[in-house]
Amino acid sequence: MNFKFQLIYWYSNNKRQLPWRETKNPYYIWLSEIILQQTQVKQGLPYYDAFVDQYPTIFDLAEATETSVLKLWQGLGYYSRARNLHAAAKYVVNELNGEFPNNYKDLLKLKGVGDYTASAIASFAYNEVAAVVDGNVYRVLSRYFGIDTAINSTIGIKEFKSLATSLIDKAQPAIYNQAIMEFGALQCKPKNPDCHICPLKDGCVALQKNLVSVLPVKLKKTKVTNKYYNFLVCIDNSKQILFEKRTNKGIWQNLYQFPLIESEKSLAPEEFHLLNFENTILSTEDFDYSLYNETDIIHKLSHQHLHTKFWIIDIDQLPNNAIAIASLTNYPTSVLISDFIDNFNF
């Protein structure tokens, strides 16, 4: 039995029952693929169910406000996925009359859709012969064929895409794509896979050469930078609080947060005066302050570590753009801000 048929046979006996595998509706398949980018199935499934429930059609998603979409997405991280999801829905509704693209080439035109996602939707919804290459596929192919080309290099991306395309079952591309991804997720796992029960063990180069823990190869990540964030939790006598939309580009664009001042280092309580209060209400008003956390809360992102302090500011009266503390949870926020709101005794 050759490689692809072994995978398909294994899949028929071991696949998980997941809702997006029970439909050919491209909207639902697209939702699942965007949600599952950078997210494990166990974490993503409740979000998928929530999106399908709240936005059962692409028209419903397109009509929603970005704030409500971001709020529903809260906790998944990589918020550009949610912004792109919303933008793509509006594009399909407004520019394509609600007709979802039905081929790989046109799917690539959707914001937030790259080679993998376009291939997945094209094959799962339309049975197009388009090979998927995600982290699971890289791992299976790298180990089975003993390929040590870095999977995140330009050469590696082309090499693995070409190999995946040569292997796909042209008669049943959707099943094959699902099979190789599921195999990577459940059997050929990143760490400590049980190779002794693997149906592909006899042909696996990595197993034969003791390279399972080495493959696949990735180029080293960009050096992580450290940033020092100081959030000003400004509360007045009438239980109003300052909460603002983060408009600058970045991972938290259009999410809400407390006024933020960056510093060059982590500040001790007695160093509060070193913050630059220019263009904030604290430059003109009298206030009292205390430090919520003397030890930094470190929020780790892929490319930077945020060393965070929350300063509690007691002030007589805030301007008209302040909101009621009770309404804080209505706004979409990062996990960092959400955890503070949940833990702080307002």
Structure in words:
It is a single chain. The chain has 346 residues and is of the alpha+beta class. It has two domains: 3-208, Hypothetical protein, domain 2 (Endonuclease III, domain 1); 225-343, Alpha-Beta Complex (Nucleoside Triphosphate Pyrophosphohydrolase). It is 39% helix and 13% strand. It has helices spanning 3-14, 26-36, 41-54, 58-63, 66-73, 80-95, 104-107, 115-126, 135-145, 154-167, 173-186, 205-208, 335-343, and strands at residues 225-235, 240-241, 244-245, 256-257, 260-263, 287-291, 297-300, 304-315, 323-324. The strands form three sheets. Strands 1, 5, 6, 7 and 8 form a five-stranded mixed beta sheet that branches. The protein has a two-stranded antiparallel sheet with strand order 2-9. Helix 2 (26-36) crosses helix 3. The N and C termini lie far apart (64 Å). The relative contact order is 0.11. The mean pLDDT is 94.
